[in-house]
Amino acid sequence: MFDCPAGKAHYIGIQIMKLHFYSAWAGLLAVTTFVSLGLNAPAQAAVAAPPAGFTALFNGTDLTGWRGGDTFDHRKLLAMPAAERDAQIAKWTATMKAHWRAEDGVLINDGQGAYATTEKDYGDFELQLEYATVPKADSGIYLRGCPQVQIWDYTEEAKFNLGANKGSGGLWNNSPGAPGKDPLVLADKPFGEWNKVRVIMVGARVSVWLNDKLVVDHALLENYYDRKKPVPARGPIQLQTHGGEIKWRNLYVREIAGTEANQILAAHGGAGFDSVFNGKDFTGWAGPINEYEIVGGAIQCRPKKGGTIFTANEYGDFAARLEFKLPRGGNNGLAIRYPGKGDTAYDGMCEVQVLDENYEQATGDKIDARQVHGSAYGMVGAERGYQRPIGEWNFEEVTVQGSKIVVELNGTVILNADLANVTEFMGGHPHPGKDRKVGSFGFAGHNDPVAFRNISIKKL
């Protein structure tokens, strides 16, 4: 019929266009049928887009981004020789992959095998996920590798003595009676329904919402592996397996930067604190105030200047809150129960050290463990590794009661000491003021432009 090659080509082109049209129409009809009949759509369609600012931990199709793990101290894992660490992770991952699978946008574990563990470590973060499980199952969510936000059967009477009847969401491995150990309310949904979890972790401070109900309110997560040390500053998120099937979906994480983290910390527990700095001048302060200046609403030691400035008011038992920012190699201190004259560290109760965490690398000077940031200078050393990068604001709270002093840096307790028990001093230098019962609060400048702002004190 078509002797003209051009005409034949035109006909074939029309047929190809029709074929594409009918193929597209058939695909649309299939998707519409899945939706209208409530059937399970293909795995790719089952994974919702992450909320704004979040990234997906699970892609809905495979275990990309996950490795195996166990109840194992993350610090010890990182301290292993690389070959030994890699071998251990490979062993865990092999058993994890044997018992975990992705199916229709859901991450499923059969109740056995190693824990699903993120390959990436996290510091401060917000986590969102959903889970569904079966009667008598037991599971949990490890935060920075530490157990755990508890998930279990709230109807299992055999575990009522352990607190199962109080519900899921608590920080179950905290000490008995400690904040966060038990959930504030029972918020679990019946079996067969999906439970929604939201976790915010800043420092060691954890808040948990289960099905939109607050079940843990800004509680300190204890370090299960060594309760004398705080939880690591960074670590993986882990999904625990514990003998019963559990399903997970819509797993999203958002890393929290320092500014927001400080806002979260400041928003909790602030009742009773009164500002002692107006952000404009040195009203209410004494000492060598000419050695300091106000820069951007913050008290800042002038370069190459120093000395201790202090509040006109004196305090016995108190808590102080503030933000501080360090230059590289920066050095200063918090004067605790300072008498208004003499050496801050020795004549006052103590000087809480304010120091660049990488001071030794910055200056080449060697320091004693009782000189690191947060230490009761020369008496008790603080934990390291919790300071924000140079140039960022840090949030710190110091609580003084009797002879005891607690320093919480960026949401993590780095010092918890009773100075009455100190008998050995750095360099053998005694601290005659350590038993002082009352005095001023202040800053002990040491030539560096260290800045302080949002300074408030609560009498206890």
| Low-confidence regions | 1-45
Q: Give the fraction of residues assigned to helices.
A: 10-25%
CATH class of the largest domain: Mainly Beta
Number of strands: 26
Assembly state of the chains shown = single chain
- The helix count comes to 7
Mean pLDDT over all positions: 91
Biggest sheet layout: 8 strands, antiparallel
Shape: elongated
What is the structure about, briefly put?
The protein has helices spanning 5-37, 43-46, 74-79, 82-99, 258-266, 344-347, 359-363, and strands at 55-56, 66-69, 100-103, 106-109, 115-118, 125-133, 138-143, 146-152, 195-202, 205-210, 213-220, 238-239, 246-255, 274-275, 285-286, 292-295, 298-301, 306-311, 318-325, 331-338, 350-355, 394-401, 404-409, 412-418, 440-446, 451-459.
Polypeptide structure, described:
The protein has helices at 5-37, 43-46, 74-79, 82-99, 258-266, 344-347, 359-363; strands spanning 55-56, 66-69, 100-103, 106-109, 115-118, 125-133, 138-143, 146-152, 195-202, 205-210, 213-220, 238-239, 246-255, 274-275, 285-286, 292-295, 298-301, 306-311, 318-325, 331-338, 350-355, 394-401, 404-409, 412-418, 440-446, 451-459. With 460 residues, it is of the alpha+beta class. It has two domains: 43-256, Exo-inulinase, domain 1 (Jelly Rolls, Sandwich), CATH 2.60.120; 270-459, Jelly Rolls (Sandwich). β23 and β24 (412-418) form a beta hairpin.
Comma- or semicolon-separated keywords:
2 domains; disordered N terminus; 460 residues; Jelly Rolls; alpha+beta
